[in-house]
Design brief:
Length: 89
Amino acid sequence: MDHIVTVQDAVTAFADYMEPTKAELDAIEQEMPVILAGVDLVDAQIIALDHTPNEIDSRRIRRARNRVLAARRELANRTAAASLPGGAA
């Protein structure tokens, strides 16, 4: 009979590298408004799937899309301004 054993050293060898770095956490935090707006859009779309879409559902989805676009625009403007030397836009 063959025994199944875990390879603990191979699994935990990279344990220090499995946590996100501070730079990765900062990037996620900067993108959080876009992520949350995307979640709101998906929620609005799911609500519309439960029944025949009506005018309120259409408005909810349209507003959620606008929030996603606005959040993406703000993120793009923020990153573009950060990459320009001297803070000039």
